[in-house]
């Protein structure tokens, strides 16, 4: 009787066939387990050796192990084959066409109003102003009375002002920051405040919420001439060389004398167009020498100190720069518009 199990050759052939048929790494692992795993048919043969005559065990074991070894090699070869096939398929399926145009990152940019705001802040800071902030919900006193606007003043009409409580308003200008700062400090000082303000107003040039910059200087010898020089430099800084400004005599309760500040219309170079209502000039802001009463309200002796103040909208600058005919274009957040600015 042969020491070799009777069907060992057939078993090896069967194993080689199954290995060759395995079409994936998963299928190959299952085939291997079926023959060489703990419960596999080759392993079962090895366990059967114990039942043989002791003199035959050595030869039978060696023969089965050789078959086991060959099947193992066969599996390893098939594994390599499948792997390279999978790589080749992956390469052909996921080919990258380097000639295709890129998807593009789409970098954004700062909003036009943010740019205007930062430029003005930089300018004022370079001129020695300290930048301050104040709350957008203000007391009626800080927003009006302290600024010499008594109860009957038209600006206090509810048509213009948003009240959030009987004595609390959404600030209608950044001037309350002036009151807060002047009350807390000893002159001399130069302070600027930039921020959102609110008025019940809606037109192509007005929005219920808009942004203002306010500056004020208190010293022993501040003058209107100094104010004019500063505003001219500011206009040049944000509008570029060649900008023209003019001062028109005006009235504000919190300054005396007062003036309105106009910019020469850049769109028509002063010839007159829709944007400047055919005047050649565009209103930019107001300014003047701080009213002695306002100084007194803040505990500053107006016989010793004097000051000037100015305030203007940031939107007007952005609209002029980009030739926008409606303030809404700055706040709608329409990407198609913003991409052009
Ligand atoms: Zn014009």
Q: What ligands are attached or bound here?
A: zinc ion
Amino- and carboxy-terminal Cα gap: 97 Å
Radius of gyration: 43 Å
Largest sheet: 7 strands, mixed
CATH secondary-structure class of the largest domain: Alpha Beta
CATH topology of the largest domain, what is it called?
BirA Bifunctional Protein, domain 2
Any idea how many domains?
Answer: 2
Question: Can you walk me through this structure?
Answer:
- It is a single chain.
- This protein is α+β, with helices and mostly antiparallel strands and 341 residues long.
- The protein folds into two domains: 8-93; 112-338, BirA Bifunctional Protein, domain 2 (2-Layer Sandwich), CATH 3.30.930.10.
- It has twelve helices and ten strands.
- The strands form two sheets. The protein has a seven-stranded mixed sheet, sandwiched between helices.
- Helix 1 (8-21) runs parallel beside helix 4 (54-93) and helix 5 (112-126) crosses helix 10.
- It is rod-shaped.
- The N and C termini lie far apart (97 Å).
- The model has no long low-confidence stretch (mean pLDDT 88).
- It binds zinc ion.
- Zinc ion (ZN) is lined by residues 265, 267-268, 272-273, 275-276, 280.
């Amino acid at each position: 009787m042969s020491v070799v199990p009777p069907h060992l050759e057939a078993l090896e052939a069967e194993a080689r066939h199954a290995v060759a048929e395995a079409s994936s790494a998963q299928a190959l692992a299952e085939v291997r387990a079926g023959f060489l795993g703990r419960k596999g048919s080759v392993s079962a043969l090895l366990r059967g050796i114990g039942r043989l005559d002791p003199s035959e065990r050595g030869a039978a074991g060696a023969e089965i192990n050789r078959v086991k070894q060959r099947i193992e090699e066969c599996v390893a070869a098939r594994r390599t084959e499948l792997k390279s096939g999978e790589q080749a398929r992956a390469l052909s399926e996921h080919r990258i066409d380097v000639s295709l145009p890129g998807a593009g990152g789409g970098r954004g940019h700062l909003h036009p109003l943010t740019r205007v705001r930062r430029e003005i802040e930089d300018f004022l800071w370079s001129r020695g102003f300290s930048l301050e902030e104040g709350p957008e919900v203000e007391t009626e006193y800080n927003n009006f009375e302290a600024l010499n606007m008594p109860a009957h003043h038209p600006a206090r009409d509810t048509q213009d002002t948003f009240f959030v409580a009987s004595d609390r308003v959404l600030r209608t200008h950044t001037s309350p920051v002036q009151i807060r700062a002047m009350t807390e400090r000893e002159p001399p000082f130069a302070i600027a405040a930039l921020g959102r303000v609110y008025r019940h107003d809606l037109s192509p040039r007005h929005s219920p919420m808009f942004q203002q910059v306010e500056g004020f200087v208190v010293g022993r010898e501040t003058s209107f001439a100094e104010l004019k020089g500063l505003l001219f430099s500011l206009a040049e800084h944000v509008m570029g060389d060649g900008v023209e400004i003019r001062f028109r005599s005006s009235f504000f309760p919190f300054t005396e004398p007062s003036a309105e500040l106009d910019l020469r219309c850049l769109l028509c170079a002063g010839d007159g167009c829709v944007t400047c209502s055919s005047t050649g000039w565009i209103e930019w802001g107001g300014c003047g020498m701080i009213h002695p009463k306002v100084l007194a309200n803040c505990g500053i002796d107006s016989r010793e100190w004097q000051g000037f103040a100015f305030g203007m909208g940031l939107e007007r600058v952005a609209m002029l720069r980009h030739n926008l005919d409606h303030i809404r274009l700055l706040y709608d957040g329409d990407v198609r518009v913003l991409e052009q600015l």
